[in-house]
Amino acid sequence: MLSSYRLYESELKEAFKKRFDNQTQSKNRTEFNRLMQKCKEGKIDLILTKSISRFSRNTVDALSWVRMLKSLDPPVHIHFERENINTADEDSELMLTILSSMAQEEAVSLGSSSQWAKQKLAEQGIVNVSRVPYGYDLDEEKKWVINPEQAAVVRRIFQSYLNSKSSRTIARELSEEKIESASGNNYWHQNSVDCILQSIFYKGCYLYQKTYSQDAITQKRLVNKGELPQYYIEDHHPAIITQEVWDATQELRESKKIKIKIMPEERREPQNFHKIFRCGQCGGILSHHLQYNYQDPKKGAKHYWRCIVSRGKNYSAKCSAQSFRQEYLEHNFMTALLEMRANERFQIEAEAVATKTDLTSEELAEVKAIEAKMEQLNQELYEAVDEELNKAGQDTKKVEALTDHIVKCKNQLDEYEE
């Protein structure tokens, strides 16, 4: 970058680190977005970067950002050192389109190759990770080693659970004793304790590929439900608890689940009220819980809603709110709905808002048509780029036209989403 910098009589304002080498979407790149904001504020008029792949591996993103920067007043240009492209030149966009498409294809190919290599290592019981769970550290050779202080907390959690303490009680005790949690604070949540109790990590095992990336561009993580092979690796790292303690813990957890399954049809949390109502005292979310009659299961369960703070889910805050029967909430909710229905002014305002925000059937059809068109244009763009690179054709105008169409389609989709 500095060699390019010397070509210009400019002041070096700031160096922005490329911290997320494997990111293909600009929304996940903190330093990149900070750079763009500086440009919009008029604090930068020239960007020097090593290569196109350092700037973006997503063709549409790259062209969108370049055009946005050129539209600023004054415009901000980019100099790509390796490709010797400067966006101030009139013919820069064509080469940028071709080379950024190659960078995107390289990212996809690299992601597939990397995933294949990781799977082959996993077949041999070798899994390299950048982060380890609570209770472990990574040594200089990236091997798992036990963190003595955290491991003692893990053993305590398992032993307390086997001594008939609930995960909620364990979390409260750890929070009251100000013991540091995995997140680095002194607050423990019940779910954190449950995750430790059911994690196979603590008996020295590892399950590879529980989740996977949908594709190299979006990098959306999905739960692996059989789409890809999974590898269960025993003795992958030092165990914190014994196999006997693990088995006893899981047996106890399953026995508690069996009691709940007496009335499976009533177990599911009503979704209509989930995370909607808030406590009038502290503002906490009302959570659902059931009160069972184990002596007479035929009577069914009673549904209650109570503030998560008053239930002790958050040990750093206090609340004295009582539980509400679901029938009470349903009655008052229906009463409020009937009152709104009878209010003509409310109906007019609600219909006006709905008209502005909801997409019509024609608009939804238009969105689908645009998405289909984008997919077709992307395929045509790749084919046109291949033709240009293989010198089978000289239709450079076609590449430019396809690029314009893709960006225009993306902007149209963004307008619908907004």
TrEMBL record:
Q: One MF term from GO for this chain?
A: DNA binding
SUPFAM superfamilies from the xrefs? Resolvase-like
Q: Does the keyword Coiled coil apply?
A: yes
Q: Where is the signal peptide?
A: none
Q: Which SMART domains match?
A: Resolvase
- Kindly list any coiled-coil regions of this protein: 360-387
Domain Recombinase residues, every copy? 133-259
List UniProt keywords, sorted A-Z: Coiled coil
Q: Which InterPro entries match?
A: DNA_bind_recomb_sf, DNA_bind_recombinase_dom, Resolv_N, Resolvase-like_N_sf, SSR_resolvase, Zn_ribbon_recom_dom
Q: Name one Pfam family in it.
A: Zn_ribbon_recom
Which Gene3D superfamilies is this protein grouped with? Answer: Putative Large Serine Recombinase, Chain B, Domain 2, Resolvase, N-terminal catalytic domain
Protein name, entry field: Recombinase family protein
